[in-house]
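Continuing the series of single-chain predictions for the mutant panel. This is the parent chain; the variants come on the following pages.
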Amino acid sequence: MEQLKELDVVLRDYIKPITSPIAVKLLPKGGAVPPKFKRPSEAFGHPLALCQGFGLARKYGWSMAYQLEDMACGPSLSFFGFMEVPEWQKEGELAYPPYAKTKEIGVLSENAIDKLPFGQIETILLAPLNRTEFEPDLILIYANTAQIARMVQGALYCEGGAIKPSFAGRAACTSDIITTYKTQAYNLIVPDGGERMFGMPGDDEMVFATPIGKIGNLMEGIVTTHKSGVARYPYPHFGLRVRPEYPEKYEAMVVMAKEGKKS
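Parent structure:
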């Protein structure tokens, strides 16, 4: 828990996201839901999309718990293993025709989406990082591209290389959670159309995802690269230090003022 508090401070001081990072935990069947967590079916009387839970957690500070009855988005049920993947989905008919020219292309698109096995989990927990009292599996941080760049620099400080995300333009919640959980690697996610309608991320926002096992290195990298001066957020703009140019009469007024001071 202390490391989560430290991460919250590091992100607040060096990255400055405008909404809270989200701690995510996947619970198997029988896993206890912590007290004070809101289940959409109980709190609102109807299910919600998972991305709506992202918004409630990061914008309002609510701790959310999703089980089968709480999931409003049909595809997310099969993606997260709350139901078996239907045969017609395997045959590309979920992606075709809205996202694919043919069913064969739909199969390629479907196979690119990471999924959890049926029955592997029973509950998805979402909580704002500064209120997290459980050991999460991963952290999701919504940020603008400048902030994302700083986190990428911090993430690679201890391990080098590059972060290589894959963008499908759909099913972003699977990239957020499932891909990060399965690969145990840093990930970058572009919110998809469904999340834009229901979860309401800003047009300038992306998601930086980190498995919990990497947050120590991430913090070290963010802090060290900041203190070295190689890059900081907000990025210092060179334009704030260059001599400005003005219309001729503006410049003449400056000359007049200086001459008047000398006389």
